[in-house]
What does this fold into?
Amino acid sequence: MKDRRRFLKNSGLATLSMLVGAEIVFASKLPKGYLPLALSDPETLKEFGKMEELIVLNDKPWNIETPSHLLDDKITPAEKMFVRNNGLVPEISDLRTWMLKIGGESVNQEKTYSLAEIKNGFVHHTYQITLECGGNGRGEFYPPTEGNQWGVGAVSSAEWTGIRLKDLLQEVGVKKNAVYVGYHGNDGHLSGDPKKEAISRGIPIAKAMQEETLIAFGMNGKDIPLIHGHPLRLVAGGYPASVSGKWLTGLSIRDRIHDGAKMESPSYRVPCEPVAAGVEVSPEDMCIIESMPVRSVLTYPKTGAILNLGRSLEIRGHAWAGELQVDQVAYSFDFGSTWNKCVLDKPRNRFAWQHFSAKIDFPKKGYYEIWAKATDEKGISQPMVVPGWNPKGYLNNACHRIAVKVR
Ligand SMILES: Nc1nc2c(c(=O)[nH]1)N[C@H]1C(S)=C(S)[C@@H](COP(=O)(O)O)O[C@H]1N2
Ligand SMILES: [Mo]
It folds into this structure.
């Protein structure tokens, strides 16, 4: 990866122009070693195995969003999966020395597992798990909140294979006073300080004991790609994806709520009670995000599509509701005046998103917006407008909207 960047940076003008596909006007003014933007993003995306259409929001650390129309697959392929990093992607050389250390106040006996012991010592399970970043949709909050300005594409639903965390916890033995499991990964802190962790979050012990909570080594039938946590990753669906620790090297069984990096307020917390937009909220009034709210995304057609009058349009998308199931998805093409039900599939398993579709017949030529609204099994629906402002811009589950023209 680095070699490629070095190669590009040292390339002569002719090579660069050829790669950009046009003459670089003002090339004489290019600072030495500067990589034209047209090259840096697509090239890095390719190096990470990502499609060029994904959107790089940040490169230090890498944060990459998926445009909604690329989420059309029922199971998200690796090349279309969003990336959210808090630190530096580790360089992994020798998997034979990779260790997973189980410790913490509430473990009966500290134990260290090699990768082979993890893979060979326990039964394997595969689940489709939807992972949504707590900050998905942040870009719409006003006043704006700091952090990656995600649109709707910080979500994925891949098939994860691994061992149940609960099987491993049973083997090491968990004391009665255990309340939380914290994770540790070996991605570097942005400061470069080796003593600091980039992120070390976790889950309540009951969540750790769920059947679908995995220590995963596989994704979509292959090894987990490096950028998504190779060789081991904690995968816990329904909660913000920040609890699904990548590059897993340790687990701490805690007798208190885990206090690792980004567990503290305001990270991944929202005001326990709603607040007015823009106010300051004191740490004791902020609560840790657990189950994510109901949400849906329209994945077909792509916004801007032009259709012919007289042909019905099939719309498609997915809906999910944290730890709950989605009960219903409705669509509107008259700005929310009337709603019709979509056909909604059952999830493949708990914590997998649900596919929906509908056929629309437009009454006449012109501009339309298609809105989608999901309702969870408790009867809670997505809001039409951006919901409760919060200091870090989490949990915007407002209805997704796309625009089409009929001619
Ligand atoms: N070790 C480690 N695990 C991590 C992170 C990280 O920066 N380091 N980011 C978390 C966050 S905030 C999210 S949203 C998901 C993103 O997963 P993905 O990059 O595989 O899509 O990973 C989570 N696990
Ligand atoms: Mo996240």
The first strand starts at residue 55 and ends at 59. The first helix runs from residue 2 to 9. The radius of gyration is 23 Å.
